[in-house]
Every structure is written in C-alpha cells, then in structure tokens.
Design goal:
Layout: E1 4-5, E2 8-9, E3 16-20, H1 25-40, E4 44-49, H2 51-60, E5 67-71, H3 76-79, H4 94-105, H5 108-117, E6 122-126, H6 131-139, E7 143-146, H7 151-162, E8 169-170, E9 177-178, H8 185-198, E10 203-206, H9 210-213, H10 215-225, E11 229-231, H11 242-246, H12 256-264, E12 271-275, H13 284-297, E13 300-305, H14 326-329, E14 333-336, H15 341-345, E15 350-355, H16 359-368, E16 372-374, H17 381-391, E17 395-397, H18 417-428, H19 432-452, H20 457-473
Parallel strand pairs: 3-4, 3-6, 4-5, 6-7, 7-10, 10-11, 12-13, 12-15, 13-14, 15-16, 16-17
Antiparallel strand pairs: 1-2, 8-9
Helix pairs in contact: 5-6, 7-10, 7-17, 13-18, 16-19
Length: 480
C-alpha cells in the first residue's frame, strides 16, 4: 500500500535529490546528465558545485524548472591555486592536479552544512567523496554512488583485489581477461577505500546500458559484492539537438558549424577521429609518432590535442611535435583544446576513433556506432580496453603497455609510429575483420538508443530506482 502522511501520498510526490559531482569532466558531465534524467521525470534536483564549475554547467545542463545549482566557494588559496582553477581539466601537471583534488576534499564542511539544512530524499555523490556516506547516514537518507566507470571495470578491479593483484591476468570473471599491463600499486591503494565505501551505499548508478556491460557482469557484480547497480545510460543520448550535444562540457575550441562544414565535405566512413580526453597529455616525441603514423596511413583525420596551458607554445602553430610541413601536406583538422565530441562522433564521415578508453569517450563512441582503436593511459582505461576489444569485439588495440596513475605523467615507453599505423589501418583500410567490427559496433549503437527509450533496459532501471527511492522515503525515521 502507498505510504501516506495525512492525506498526502508520498509515492505520488516528487523526490528531492542533491547531486554532488567531482570536478573533472569524466565525472561531472555524466553525473549532471543523470541529474537531468531525474529532473525530466518531475523530481527536484539540486547540483552542488563551485563557481567556475557552475559556469560550465549553466551552459551544458538544460534549463529546467526542476534543476537548480547551489555553489560553495572553492578553497583555491588554501591549496595554492590561482582563483578560478576549480577543475582537473584546468591544470596540466601532477602537482596542480593534486592541489585541485586536495581543495575538492576541503568542500566537505560547506557542502555538508548546506545538505543538513536542506535535507533531500536522496544524496547522489561521486565516490571520491568518502564523507558522503557518513552524511547520508546522519540524515537517514539513501546515498547513491557514482564513479563514472563501466560495471565491467569495477568487476575487474574487485576480482584483482580478491586475488591480491597477483598478475595482469584477472581471475574469476565470466571471461578470461589478460591485461596489457599490471595496475600501478599507487592506483590500487588509492582505489581500495573508494570501492570499499562505495559498497556501503544504497546502490551504484552506472553510465552504461545492460547490453554493453552484459547481464553476466551484472549478475557477477551483485553475486560477489551483494551490492545493487542500476544502469541508466548512455546518458549522452538525452541530448537531442546538435547544440545540446555541443554544449556538454567546456567551451569548444572550434565552432560546431566549422566542424560540421568540414565533415560534410568528406565521404562516409573516411575520417579518423583522434582524442585522448582532457586529462591525458603526451610528450612532444609521442605526438610526433602519432602524427607520423597518421600521415603514413594516408587517411583524413580530426585530431584533438590538449591546449598547452601557460606555455610559450600555447598559440604557436609550429609546435615541436609536428613534422615539418605536416599541416600543409595533410587535409586533416587539428583542434587545440576542447572539441564537440558527441557531434563529431555522430557524423557519418567518421570511420574510427583512436581513443584512451576513458569511459565517457567509450560509451559516446558506442552510442554513435563508431569502432575504436584503443590506447589506454591511466585510471581504469586498461580494463575498458578489454571490454571493447576482447569481450564485445568492437575495436582493435594499439598495444599500449604503460599504465600511469594520472594522465599528466611522463611515460617511459614511446609507442612507435609503425604499430600506431598498423592499428589504424586494421580498421580504416577495410577488409573482412574491419567490416565485422564495424557491423558489431553499429549493432551496439542500435541497442544503446533502444536502452534509453521508453521500455528499454535503462529506462526501466530508472523507473524502478525511482520507485525504490519513493518507498525508502516512506520508511525514514520520524525524527529525520
């Protein structure tokens, strides 16, 4: 029976959510898309963030009567950062990335104070905020955890942890998985308390769809951890118009019109898209190898190269990494800075995506039906690579073997132009293998779109989660 309070039916009342995103693009963008999902069903959402990040969200989160932003000051000076630097994408070295993280952890007090004064029915917090568990318990409200990973990657991490990180071979999963590198010890030590506290939450929300992670991994996760996961994605598909897609994240270095005008002149399946995310910065030598490989392959390309913040080279079009005459000899487009990635991937001229396997990029490529050339660099990306290439077989590997704990770190091994070119040609030159990979990628794109439509797997999960949370609200202690 519905829970009532006097004549008020609690199951009919909108839920009140507080969303607490971590200030990095791979965390913040999908979690705010998820916030929009809940708001689109009439629930009241407050996103708690900092002033500079709010400016990004005001542009990228659709104007909605059920969404509001609450800002708390970012303690830049306390950690030695310039004013306005409040996101990991705003820095380009290890020292400053640590300072951003350190400052973010100092947000506990102001965020907790606001939440306690304006208690929600549910807290949705990034798993980086360990203190959100204590806050939710204090208020007697459920906490949903979000980490921006695939469930496959989480299963892999949990399995490696259970076997004491003995090797790069992951035991106990539905598939036999051998990673190309062993996770760095510093990364596993950082991740363990986060994953442990995540399991104390009411449940995990995942920016993916059941068909891509696979029923076998959902069952494995719930059986081995006793924890519940809700697949609600791909959340990038909630953006309907070209402008909505372009507005996700930071301001693009080139206009959407410029990108589309360039792409419209190309043949279908003829352009290679290259992007390693906002947090991965390669050395000039490595960029030179990539440029040489692209030129040798003979294929047209769009290449997103992170802006070199704070250096004299910032606006120099003759960077050291570029072979002499490279731009004059090639018809590709180089974007220095942020790119409208969802728009680019959705264009029919895009044939393949050379990617770092960040989860946002991965699920956006899958949603567009674009096969991937995988080159993982840091965090959980080496796990994602195996889901792409081995489990779902919608990509090929470059063969990267150096696993960094963060994208800014100098790498010891240079990935040579020959093996980069070989991987590019495997997908871009055509042939039976490339055709089969492309066909599977396109099938997953159809499944992704179905998942978020009414009656699809992700839509059903969202409605079931909302129903669960409404029932939870009816059982809160009276003194809460």
């Amino acid at each position: 029976m519905p829970t009532t309070m006097g004549s008020l039916n609690l199951e009919e009342c909108p839920l009140k959510f507080h969303f607490i995103p971590y200030p990095a693009p791979g965390h913040m963008i999908p979690l705010c898309d998820i916030a929009t999902l809940f708001a689109s069903h009439g629930h009241h959402v407050t996103i708690i963030t900092t002033p500079s990040n709010a400016e990004i969200l005001l542009k990228s989160v659709p104007s909605h009567q059920h969404i509001s932003l609450h800002t708390v000051p970012f303690p830049s000076r306390q950690v030695g950062l310039p004013l306005g630097v409040e996101n990991l994408a705003s820095v380009n070295n290890v020292e400053n990335s640590y300072k951003v993280h350190q400052a973010t952890m100092l947000l506990q007090l102001p965020i907790s104070k606001f939440v306690e004064q304006d208690a929600p029915d549910c807290i949705v917090a990034d798993f980086m905020f360990l203190w959100a568990d204590e806050l939710a318990n204090k208020l007697h409200v459920p906490r949903l955890a979000f980490n921006g990973f695939s469930l496959f990657a989480i299963c892999a991490m949990e399995s490696l942890k259970a076997h004491s990180y003995e090797s790069s071979v992951i035991k106990g999963l539905p598939h036999c998985i051998a990673l190309n590198a062993t996770p760095p010890e510093a990364l596993t030590e950082f991740m363990e308390p986060l994953l442990e506290t995540e399991l104390k939450s009411y449940g995990l929300i995942v920016n993916n769809f059941t068909e891509l992670d696979g029923e076998e991994y959902i069952e494995h996760y719930e059986k081995t951890t006793g924890h519940k996961a809700w697949h609600l994605g791909p959340v990038s598909l909630i953006c309907r118009t070209t402008q909505e897609k372009a507005d996700r994240g930071q301001t693009s270095a080139v206009s959407v019109d410029e990108c589309l005008s360039w792409l419209n002149l190309k043949q279908p399946n003829s352009v290679l898209y290259i992007c390693f995310g906002s947090l991965c910065h390669f050395s000039d030598k490595q960029l030179y190898e990539i440029a040489s490989a692209i030129e040798a392959s003979g294929h047209q390309f769009i290449w997103v190269v992170p802006e070199k913040k704070g250096t004299a080279e910032r606006n120099d079009r003759n960077e050291k990494w570029m072979p002499k005459g490279f731009e004059e000899r090639n018809t590709g487009m180089i974007i220095r800075g942020w790119a409208p990635q969802v728009v680019i991937l959705g264009h029919p001229s895009i044939s393949a995506f050379l990617t770092h396997c960040g989860w946002n990029s991965t699920v956006e490529a899958v949603s567009a039906g674009v096969p991937m050339i995988t080159w993982p660099v840091h965090d959980e990306q080496f796990y994602n690579e195996k889901l792409i290439t081995q489990v779902r077989r919608i990509g090929v590997e470059v063969g990267a073997e150096e696993w960094s704990i963060i994208g800014f770190m100098e790498r010891k091994k240079l990935v040579g132009r020959d093996i980069i070119e070989k991987a590019v040609r495997r997908l871009m030159d055509g042939g039976i293998e490339a055709d089969e990979i492309r066909h599977r990628a396109q099938e997953y794109a159809v499944k992704a779109k179905r998942a978020v439509q009414e009656g699809g797997s992700s839509h059903k999960n969202l409605m079931a989660l909302i129903d669960d949370l409404k029932r939870e609200r009816g059982y809160k202690p009276l003194d809460s």
